Amino acid sequence: MVLYRGRRQQSSGVYSRMVVGFAVATSLWAASGPGHAQSSDTVRAKVSDLVVARVDGMVIDGRDYELAQQMFVHDLKGLDEKARHDFLVQYLIDVALMSRDAQKKDLKIDEAALQRNVEFLRKKALMESWLGDVARSAVTADTVRAAYDQAVKDAAEPQIRMRTMLFKVDAADDEKVVKTAEDRANEAVARIKKGEEFTKVAEDMTGTSLPATLKEAGYMGRQQMKPEIAKVAFATEVGSTAAPIRTEQGWEVVKVEDKQTRKPLEFDVVRDKFGMVVARKAQLVAMEKLRSEAKIERLDIPEQPQDQAGKATNEGAKVKAPN
Questions:
Q1: How does DSSP assign 175-242, residue by residue?
Q2: Residue 180 neighbours by CB distance under 10 Å
Q3: % residues pLDDT > 70 (the chain)
């Protein structure tokens, strides 16, 4: 199981929270995909133990195919399955032909560089074996169920469906403009509370019913809203219109239409996905342990003066404090 691929490594703490958090969210809510289109894995499975081609008696087998596919994994994304397969097989045929001709011409290669590449690939294979071992040890029926239960508990916050009306303020530093917009927003709230329909008031007061000004959004969680909107909306009863809320765009009027608690997918549907969550988390923890026990010297980064190093440490502490 490969944890990093085609991605720049981020600072360990942030990276850990990002990877595990994203995996939990997508595992709990995303529909499983048994009906999605076949991927290149289909072709790969078919050829993994087969002879793919022969070139003047030279055998190209599934292992060669696997290596070529890994090499071009990012370059072939735009091609369909058949085109990817044909490209890889033709590439392997060309490699066989050209390498044989190079040997006939007694062309030389950098054997030391080749050996370094082989050693790097050996270490990479060992790393992947290590990651797989950590994952297998961590994933049990109990740990997967516990991860699912915790995710359900963490995601139990209700969602809100609401309408919003915006009284835009273009000059935020102009107190008169801000006050005028606030007064109009308060007038809109008063009309709605007297029984007028939200949409009609919005059209009368803002002059438009375009989605950017008047909208009925789908159900949204706290994280999907502006913080100042979420704070008020979640404290407002269903059917009620809150007092105008000051945002960076101006003054917004919010009416809460409905609240619901989102139902997660059944455990059996997402069991495998949560197995991946448990595995990734275990890998990250084990990796952090190895790093903490090792003496690591980053020679690519110039040494910082002591006062700057201390400042950087303090800044890092400030960032982590909310957690």
A1: HHHHHHHHHHHHHHHHHHHTT--HHHHHHHHHS---TTTEEE---B-GGGS-HHHHHHHTTSPTT-BP
A2: 14
A3: 75
What's the rounded Cα separation, in Å, for the pair 212 and 219? Answer: 17
pLDDT at 301: 81
Helices (H) and strands (E) in the chain, counts: 11, 6
Backbone phi and psi for residue 163, each to the nearest 5 degrees, phi listed first: -110, 145
The answer on pLDDT for 185 being more than 60 is yes
Give the H/E segment covering residue 46: helix 40-47
- Spell out the domain ranges in the chain: 12-152, 159-260
The pLDDT, as a whole number, for residue 306 is: 60
pTM of the model: 0.51
How far is 234 from 241, CA to CA, in rounded Å?
12
Q: Look-up: residue for tokens 């292992």?
A: 63
In this structure, how many other beta carbons lie within 10 angstroms of the beta carbon of residue 92? 19
Q: What is the spatial distance between Cα 99 and Cα 194, in angstroms, rounded to a whole number?
A: 84
Rounded to the nearest 5 degrees, what angle is found at the Cα of 198, between the Cα atoms of 194 and 201? 80
CA distance 35 to 12: 36
Assigned CATH topology for domain 159-260: Chitinase A; domain 3 (3.10.50)
Distance CA 201, CA 255 (A): 12
